[in-house]
Design brief:
By secondary structure, this protein is an alpha/beta fold. It has helices at 11-24, 67-74, 112-117, 123-130, 146-154, 156-170, 180-183, 185-194, 197-203, 228-236, 281-287, 293-300, 344-347, 376-390, 417-428, 446-462; strands at residues 2-7, 28-33, 45-47, 53-55, 61-62, 81-82, 90-93, 96-99, 220-223, 242-244, 249-254, 260-264, 269-272, 274-277, 304-315, 327-330, 338-343, 356-363, 400-411, 434-436. The structure holds flavin-adenine dinucleotide.
């Protein structure tokens, strides 16, 4: 019987185990090895003593990439899916919260009146964006940064005031470093295929209307019980799979029969015909050091940024003046340490009681990560100070503070990332049946991680 060892019980490893088990069941011997005491990796939902749902990691899944929603449905979680209560949000720019123009996420103003009225952009910036369709497409087939792409097509102001805080923020990166081809390939494709983003948006067919009575899903969805519900549902499907928690894989060596031997921190060993490494790139580098030194050095070269989520609970009476919105992201030149803030209780139903607002602040970004080193009390005070300042809360106190540090958590897809992946894959060719999957490679969002886990399962079954 084929033996498969999956290393890493985050969403990628779990998805791989689930799809492998679903397709092959008893025909494959599957072991899932996880170094920590729990499964889920970056997915970490806390239900606090007051019954609040506090996400320490991801809080939502995008639906324009189908793999998340599809897995929710397969796992019978459909009744637990929730849409956001509102989608209105702000950008902190030039000292004030400024509304993101309605329907503007694609950087093509679909609501022209709303766009023209927006105080986020100057008249010059708006006119420059409206010229986007006349900007000749680049003839360079290579990669470029998100910042360079948006500046070239939409103007420097749209890049600085919109793309940098919103899109580079997702990756905890700087817009001038992050690869457009690896992170937002659809924009590059739009330019290549239609000449401009505007032309592409105009030619895009309207999304298919849901069948009568079918449920409509927003661009982002979550689960009533928090994202941990996804982990719990996957865990329930792991029957027949050996799951080893608190077990760290340290190295892989080759066996004479062409298979592999994996050794743990306690010296325990597993043999495998196929190995899925669903661990951070730097961990996979260390595990592969002996068996694939060239691939290992390339894995080590994938940079990571550290981030942190600070969740604050305010009495609703202190924040009664806030507009009904999901929160804001912060422009790079503002004098704050945080990069964004979600008003979680306004965004998702039942995260707290009605008399409270849960505020989720994002800290850390490539080059601004020293903040994680501070003591909890200093971090809590800083977050309250910054939130009170931006939201004009005076000296309002947070009723509770939760801090989740994520050292070396966000892989950085710098310009040239896809070429470097091709080079890495070339060097891994000599190690048949070792699969590298997860956030470090082809998408950091949950749907992309699920997709990679699923594809690894399919490749193993095909091999
Ligand atoms: C703060 C934050 C907010 C985010 N928000 C969103 C969001 O809202 N929506 C979204 O789609 N994405 C979001 N992301 C991104 C997304 O959550 C992650 O990219 C994704 O969960 C990573 O999954 P993974 O399985 O690839 O890696 P991980 O979750 O890192 O899992 C890797 C696992 O491997 C284990 N491991 C490590 N070394 C070893 C070893 N030697 N042996 C055995 N096991 C080992 C680890 O303990 C871990 O459990 C967010 C990320 C962060 C950090």
């Amino acid at each position: 019987m084929k033996k498969v060892v999956i290393v890493g019980g985050g969403i990628t490893g779990l998805s791989c185990a689930y799809y492998l088990n679903k397709a092959a069941g008893a025909d494959v011997d599957i072991t899932l090895v996880e170094s920590s005491a729990t499964l889920g990796g970056k997915i970490k939902t806390l239900i606090d003593p007051a019954g609040r749902t506090v996400e320490g990691g991801p809080d939502s899944v995008i639906t324009t990439k189908p793999f998340g929603l599809q897995l929710f449905k397969e796992l019978g979680l459909e009744d637990s899916i929730i849409n956001p209560l509102t989608t209105k949000s702000f950008i902190l720019n030039r000292g004030s919260l400024r509304s993101i123009p309605p329907d503007f996420m694609s950087m093509v103003p679909k609501d022209m009146m709303g766009f023209l009225k927006s105080d986020l952009f100057s008249i010059k910036g708006k006119l420059r964006l409206l010229c986007e369709k006349w900007i000749a497409p680049s003839r360079d087939p290579g990669d470029e940064s998100l910042g360079a792409f948006v500046t070239r097509r939409c103007g420097a102001e749209i890049s600085e005031r919109f793309a940098e805080p919103l899109f580079a923020g997702i990756y905890a990166s700087n817009a001038d470093e992050i690869s457009i081809r690896a992170s937002f390939p659809h924009w590059k494709t739009m330019e290549e295929k239609y000449g401009s983003i505007t032309a592409a948006a105009l030619k895009q067919p309207a999304p298919p209307k849901p069948a009568p009575g079918a449920r409509k899903y927003s661009a982002f969805i979550s689960l009533k019980g928090g994202m941990q519900q996804l982990v719990g549902a996957l865990q329930q499907q792991l029957t027949g799979i050996r799951t080893e928690l608190n077990t760290r894989i340290e190295r892989i060596t080759r066996q004479p029969n062409g298979g592999y031997q994996l050794t743990t921190n306690t010296g325990a060993q597993y043999t495998a015909d196929a190995v899925v490494l669903a661990t951070p790139a730097y961990t996979s580098a260390s595990i592969l050091g002996e068996v694939a030194p060239e691939a290992s050095s390339r894995l080590n070269a994938i940079p990571y940024a550290s981030t942190m989520i600070v969740s604050l609970v305010y009495a609703r009476s202190d924040v009664a003046h806030l507009p009904n919105a999901t929160g804001f992201v912060v422009s790079a030149n503002e004098q704050y340490s945080f990069t964004g803030c979600s008003w979680t209780s306004n965004k998702w139903a039942d995260r707290t009681g009605d008399d409270e607002l849960l505020v989720r602040c994002f800290y850390g970004k490539a080059g601004n990560e020293h903040i994680l080193q501070q003591e909890d009390s200093a971090i809590g005070q800083l977050a309250v100070r910054e939130i009170n300042n931006v939201l004009n809360l005076g000296d309002a106190k947070a009723k509770a503070v939760y801090i989740q540090r994520w050292p070396k958590a966000m892989p950085q897809y710098f310009v040239g990332h896809l070429d470097r992946l091709a080079d890495l894959e070339q060097h891994l060719k000599a190690c048949a049946n070792i699969y590298l999957v997860g956030a470090a490679y082809r998408g950091i969002g949950i749907p992309d991680c699920i997709k990679q886990g699923k594809e690894a399962a399919e490749s193993i079954l095909k091999a």
